[in-house]
Specification:
With 469 residues, the chain is α+β, with helices and mostly antiparallel strands. Helix content is 31%, strand content 24%. The strands form 3 sheets. Strands 1, 2, 3, 7, 8, 9, 10, 17 and 18 form a 9-stranded mixed β-sheet that branches. Strands 11, 12, 13, 14, 15 and 16 form a 6-stranded antiparallel β-sheet that branches. Strands 4-6-5 form a 3-stranded antiparallel β-sheet, with no helix packed on it. A hairpin with a 5-residue loop joins strand 17 and strand 18. Helix 1 runs parallel beside helix 6. The two termini are 44 Å apart.
């Protein structure tokens, strides 16, 4: 029986599969997944004149990268230095150490952060406009444009420029293993799709299977937040939470690697989003509201934490302990006008709007007196440059003197699950007995990393090792 899936948002793709490629393919490297990590690996290999093919199970490119909201986490980049927002890698890691990251995770984060300036430069040289300095550890797209779509525009354009072939609606269903060695992948290609910008289309998953033989396999398949069974096994504390990750994030690297006994850390690390808004079946990140200076209040109309702490896990746990587990992000018109992303959410009806704080409180069902008191007190903190209640240090720029006022309900959710396959420093997959799988690479979120800076870095590392062989 054919399964059907409705796709609501589709990026313009590099190529459209209207014919069935049922013959086996032979190539140097096959990359599974077309997010930022897989595409960077493919672009680097193709730039070096190596044969490469990218397969993507969805009918559009990008995966979770498409959903990256507002900023890169980077330090010591040229735009930050020019803006006087300086923070050393060592000082940033001291902050991260307080969140409980393991020594191994800190070392890997250090390596990618030292490469951050080069990553930002590469992206900007290719039109990303990553020039909006948000803080000493954050950079966004100029004008407040959403990060992910712009990054995929850059990657798509560059891939087309160097000639990377991308096969859409093509799912890797198994690794080809011969004499204990991985020789490529078996894929299942969908039937008769047509990809058009901005149009929802119905896609029927077909049964045409063929093989792609390759010297190297790069798994860039994303996380597993949309696989309940894997969440239950690897991240039981957070099972059942909504997620803003891509629908295709079903743990394919873990599943494909099971015959090889790939090593997956348990419990897996999970990156949470404390600013998730759910409406009409859609989950969206409202991180932009806090980034532009918004605060979070509970049903009592009171703040209960540092609204912009870098420790999202702690913040999420505090949110879940609030009355009925409900919270609201509050911003003013100045914050709204600073972000194109927020303006888009406003047009979709994700915000409640009111000319006064008291009327806003009434609309969202919190005590007006309490919310007015909270807003007034926080306004003084912004004016004086010090949060005397919770020690907030970042993006204290909304003083709530510019009506109208806006509120949106928010809850913790799963953003990414960087608890995937364990690798060495060259991104080669490890087995449960500690062995390296020579020609299998795992990058991006699938390899215990995030989808942005880490994705770029890990894709580059995999390509470098393949080119060195």
């Amino acid at each position: 029986m054919k399964s059907k899936m409705i796709v609501g948002f589709v990026m313009t793709a590099l190529c459209v599969n209207l014919a069935f490629a049922v013959e086996d393919i032979h190539t140097g490297t096959v990359v599974v997944g077309s997010g930022i990590s897989g595409m960077k690996a493919a672009i680097d290999l193709k730039t070096a004149k190596k044969d490469v093919v990218v397969v993507e199970k969805m009918p559009f490119m990008g995966g979770t990268t498409n959903l990256a909201a507002q900023y890169f986490v980077v330090v010591e980049t040229e735009p930050q230095t020019k803006a006087g927002k300086t923070l050393t890698v060592a000082d940033y890691l001291k902050r991260k150490e307080k969140t409980g990251l393991s020594k191994e995770a800190l070392l890997r984060e250090a390596e990618q952060l030292y490469a951050a300036d080069g990553i930002v430069k590469w992206l900007n040289d290719n039109g990303a406009e990553l020039t909006r300095v948000v803080s000493d550890y954050q950079i966004g797209i100029a004008g407040g444009t959403s990060l992910g779509p712009r990054l995929m525009q850059v990657m798509s354009k560059k891939a087309k420029e160097v000639g990377v072939p991308v096969k859409l609606n093509t799912k890797a269903v198994a690794l080809i293993i011969e004499d204990g060695k991985v020789k490529g992948i078996e894929v299942e290609q969908g039937k008769g799709i047509e990809v058009e910008q901005g149009k929802g289309i119905e896609v029927e998953q077909g049964k045409e299977k063929y093989k792609i033989f390759a010297d190297n396999v790069v798994l860039a398949t994303g996380g597993f937040a949309n696989n309940p069974a894997l969440m239950e096994r690897y991240a039981p504390e957070w099972k059942g939470l909504p997620t803003t990750t891509a629908k295709g994030s079903t743990g394919d690297a873990i599943i494909l690697g099971q015959p090889l006994k790939v090593l997956v850390e348990e419990p897996a690390e999970v990156y949470l989003n404390p600013s998730m808004h759910s409406q009409a079946g859609n989950n969206v990140s409202m991180s932009a509201a806090r980034l532009e200076g918004g605060i979070i209040v509970n049903l009592k109309g009171e703040r209960f934490c540092d609204d912009y702490t870098p420790n999202y896990t702690t913040m999420s746990r505090l949110m879940m302990k609030q009355p009925e587990g409900k919270s609201f992000v509050i911003i003013d018109d100045k914050s709204m006008k600073a972000s194109k992303r927020l303006q888009g959410f406003k047009q979709k009806g994700y915000f409640v709007e009111a000319p006064t704080v008291a009327e806003l409180a009434k609309k969202i069902g919190v005590p007006a007196e309490n919310l007015e008191k909270t807003i007034k007190r926080y306004s003084e903190f912004v004016k004086n440059g010090k949060d005397e209640d919770f020690g907030r240090k970042y993006n204290m720029k909304t003083d709530f003197t510019t009506p109208p006022y806006y509120a949106t309900s928010t809850t913790p959710g799963v953003q990414t699950t960087p608890g995937g396959v364990k690798t060495n420093s060259f991104m080669q997959a490890r087995t449960t007995d500690g062995k390296i799988i020579p020609n299998v690479y795992v990058v991006g979120e699938a390899s215990k990393g995030t989808a942005t800076v880490y994705g770029m870095w890990s894709g580059t590392k995999a390509a470098e090792h393949i080119l060195s062989k």
